[in-house]
């Protein structure tokens, strides 16, 4: 039955390259609606759309459950889907999804589109239940051939399944893809709308954001494309599909000002995608040199101001693509927080500035990463918003220490002349209906669904020793967010304290299962309290 949830998510994406329509789009069309409009209506809290989306989701789940039921035997094992599928596809009315939908308001759903979609889902189902990991591991240990295949997010690209392959990434020159740009536009427009709504209708002049290597592999360059769309350029592929050029999108087409960016590339991104750093740097410089009014082109506005202050030309001032020095990774804020080896937030911010201020310069080919801290600080000081992506349901904000490690929210506040705290946003593109939430909303959601959710912590505790460590790690990562952004509500710590410390039975369980992690958990509570979080 777990396969149903995965299939529902897989079915929610349009796959125009294979002529496959998303199930929610097919269902929405039967009631004369466009699914993107329904998603948008949901975002705005329009009750009619919230209800319709609930019905669409329920019908998707029902139709897919009916299909999975018919493809499995009475022990719940998948029987040979290829035979089953051929027979299922043979009889119009007998198709289980049609039978299910006939009792719903979506009974008129396009049969042909459904047939194509469920043919594809049948292939996916076979891949989802395949179990090759131990087999492949044995093959590898015996020095035998292991079949290679792409890695990535199984929802966006089910062909990464089955697991147990010798996985490879992608051609680094092939991103961003057309589909990635399409998704990026939606996220950027939602981010800008949200910022406008919360800030008296004003666009942010600058967004400080993060590019990860693994994310861009999994999404075929969605976050890379987000940067391009913010500044208003479009990637251009050559005849072999390599993206090595950008062209400006006209202000008319963009329908808004070009938003300036400060791009913080992870060390992994720098290692994998140096060509794309080059491309972005050229894009930013090109935009800074466009002859456009400053209130329509914030890249140009800031670059002109910075050029004047620094006594350099506009191209040099238009430096926005930063990372670590060659061979170095991370701001190390995560290590400082994990080891409690820091005095105050300022110290963490200094680490960020000294480690992350290395710029790539497309006008100095071969020069490598060069320290440009002054421009970095100046660019960050114009940021009205900070932004990161959550791209797959595998990892969220407090699962790992690397998200807060890249977060410059409090740093930007300190650098800004007016001392104003920037808005902080997180995009959730783990499902078809991409969401942009504030960082504090996302931290809340993470706390509710994991740290404070009995299903999560009991699941962890059922694994024993390691489970206690996972709970402790999550609390430490939460402290990390307090330290870099101040966006964690008090009640998160208070409820965690009630759950894990005040409850004596729980306290004893933790202490007996893993005394080391329990001690660290206590220390972390005391530290959070001591630091005023
Ligand atoms: C990255 O893919 O860029 C990345 C991976 C692990 C930690 C931080 C960044
Ligand atoms: Mg991620």
From TrEMBL:
CobN/magnesium chelatase domain sequence ranges: 3-533
Organism expressing this protein natively: Lycium ruthenicum
GO cellular component, one term: chloroplast
The protein's name: Mg protoporphyrin chelatase
């Amino acid at each position: 039955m777990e396969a149903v949830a995965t299939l529902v998510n897989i079915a929610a994406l349009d796959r125009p390259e294979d002529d496959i329509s998303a199930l929610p789009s097919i269902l929405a069309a039967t009631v004369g609606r466009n699914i993107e409009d329904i998603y948008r209506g949901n975002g705005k809290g329009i009750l009619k759309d919230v209800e319709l989306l609930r019905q669409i989701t329920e019908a998707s789940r029902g139709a897919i459950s009916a299909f999975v039921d018919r493809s499995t035997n009475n022990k719940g094992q998948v029987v040979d889907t290829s035979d089953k599928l051929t027979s299922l596809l043979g009889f119009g009315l007998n198709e289980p999804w049609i039978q299910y939908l006939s009792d719903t308001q979506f009974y008129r759903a396009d049969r042909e589109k459904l047939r194509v979609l469920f043919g594809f889902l049948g292939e996916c189902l076979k891949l989802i239940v395949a179990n090759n990991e131990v087999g492949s591991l044995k093959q590898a240990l015996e020095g035998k051939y292991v079949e290679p295949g792409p890695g990535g997010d199984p929802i966006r690209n089910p062909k990464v399944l089955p697991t147990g392959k010798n996985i490879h990434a992608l051609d680094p020159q092939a991103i961003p893809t057309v589909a990635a740009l399409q998704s990026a536009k939606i996220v950027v427009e939602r981010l800008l709308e949200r910022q406008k709504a919360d800030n008296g209708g004003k666009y942010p002049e600058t967004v400080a954001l993060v590019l990860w290597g693994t994310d861009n592999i999994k999404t075929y360059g969605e976050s890379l494309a987000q940067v391009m769309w913010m500044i208003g350029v479009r990637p251009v592929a050559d005849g072999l599909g390599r993206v090595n050029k950008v062209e400006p999108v006209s202000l008319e087409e963009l329908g808004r000002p070009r938003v300036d960016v400060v791009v913080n590339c992870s060390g992994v991104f720098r290692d994998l995608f140096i060509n794309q750093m080059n491309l972005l740097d050229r894009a930013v410089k090109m935009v800074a040199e466009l002859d456009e009014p400053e209130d329509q082109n914030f890249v140009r506005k800031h670059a002109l101001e910075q050029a004047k202050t620094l006594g350099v030309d506009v191209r040099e001032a238009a430096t926005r693509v930063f990372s670590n020095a060659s061979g170095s990774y991370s701001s190390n804020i995560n290590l400082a927080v994990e080891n409690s080896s820091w005095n105050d937030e300022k110290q963490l911010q200094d680490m960020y500035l000294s480690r992350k201020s290395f710029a790539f310069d497309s006008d100095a080919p071969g020069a490598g990463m060069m320290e440009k801290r002054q421009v970095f600080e100046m660019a960050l000081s114009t940021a009205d918003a900070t932004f990161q992506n959550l791209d797959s349901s595998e990892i969220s904000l407090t699962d790992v220490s690397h998200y807060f490690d890249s977060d410059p929210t409090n740093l930007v506040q300190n650098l800004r002349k007016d001392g104003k705290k920037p808005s902080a946003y997180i995009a959730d593109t783990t499902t078809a209906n991409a969401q942009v939430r504030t960082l504090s909303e996302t931290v809340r959601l993470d706390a509710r669904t994991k740290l404070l959710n009995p299903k999560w912590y009991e699941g962890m505790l059922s694994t024993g020793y390691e489970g206690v460590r996972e709970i402790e790690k999550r609390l430490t990562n939460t402290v990390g967010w307090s330290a870099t952004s101040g966006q964690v509500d008090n009640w998160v710590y208070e409820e965690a304290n009630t759950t894990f410390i005040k409850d004596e039975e729980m306290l004893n369980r933790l202490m007996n299962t893993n005394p080391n992690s329990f001690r660290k958990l206590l220390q972390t509570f005391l530290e959070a309290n001591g630091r005023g979080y």
